[in-house]
Amino acid sequence: MPGSLEQLDLGVQIPYHFRCPISLELMRDPVTVRTGQTYDRSSIESWVATGNTTCPVTRAPLTDFTLIPNHTLRRLIQDWCVANRSFGIERIPTPKQPADPALVRSLLNQASSISNPAQSRLSALRRLRGLFRDSDKNRSVISSLNAREILIEIVFSGTDSESLELNHEALALLVMFPLAESECESVVSNGDRVAFLSHLLFHSSIEVRVNSTALIEIVVAGTRSPELRAQVSNVDEIFEGVIEIMKNPIASYPRALKVGVKALFALCLVKQARQKVVSAGAAEILIDRLPDFEKCDAERALATVELLCRVPEGCAAFAAHALTVPLLVKIILKISDRATEYAAGALLSLCSATEQSQRDAVAAGVLTQLLLLVQSDCTDRAKRKAQLLLKLLRDSWPEDSIGNSDDFACSEIVIPSY
């Protein structure tokens, strides 16, 4: 359905009472407020969300913000759309109604009560998951009713055969929420809970494995305490499990690679974990899968590469992969400013570590890329890294290279903090 029918010049007039008084557009989900006026749900919700407490039409105070669906008007609008389909007007779909807080509270109670049969609890969790996916409004309602704390308890409530399906369903719902720091700490500070998540990383179900990886990323990234985050690095199986997740083919489960690289980056923020991440095979998987990442995930993957290049084991592992240097050179100025900065930082570490990496970078055309970079609108940090690289590679420049000229000076260089 076009946002504005007038723009299409279809020769059709929208009936006045089908228009929202706020947006003046055809209503898709008409709701009535206590004053008797009807508005499109998204418009009146935005009006209230910005702090307004009056009815937009009557200016009467709104002491009750309950929105009542106007089913009769919505059906009339749908009939009008059908009658005018020859003008290219599509019938508006019947909107799903927001979850009733009383229903959500009942489902949460049903799911959390250990006296209920397992199948009843499982059914409640699945219904909550469906409601959560339906709309932002539902997510807000569910979040406001202590759902996260309840789900955390269910996820780690027991590991017997009857409880496992409940654990997995609660986990699938929990990873849809942003968790508070206290909730993240309640997981990472408990060795049994961390061990349980690491065990799930090797489950036969790819969905369970990915959800476990997702929760590991959420709790590690959401915990500020270095000591608590470091506790996770004591569990070697976590690194192996996350790397295995990233090996999953995109065609069979696209979410695996995205979740895996997020978890890997979060783990690499813990300095003590980087050597273990390298030992688990991170260098090979990151370089091999780099072309498969979407923009945001590519940035995260490159940031992870740069972090791992800060440890000798990481530098050695990436330098040993024949595609590392050519790929990093190719990425400069291709994906985004951040990606360029991370790629330049990784190249700086690699070229500082081995002369072979320097020769590989020059052979891949890094000099031209770096000269373009320092003249671009990229970040200052990226430019400083490029300047350092140019100075480092000066002895490797071919005699006929523009880079061997004194026209480009690298005398005043500020070394970035590593």
From TrEMBL:
Annotated keywords: Transferase, Ubl conjugation pathway
Name of the molecule in the record: U-box domain-containing protein
Signal sequence coordinates: none
Organism annotation: Juglans regia
EC number, UniProt record: 2.3.2.27
Pathway: Protein modification; protein ubiquitination
Record's function text: Functions as an E3 ubiquitin ligase.
Pfam family, one: U-box
Gene label: LOC108988933
Entry superkingdom: Eukaryota
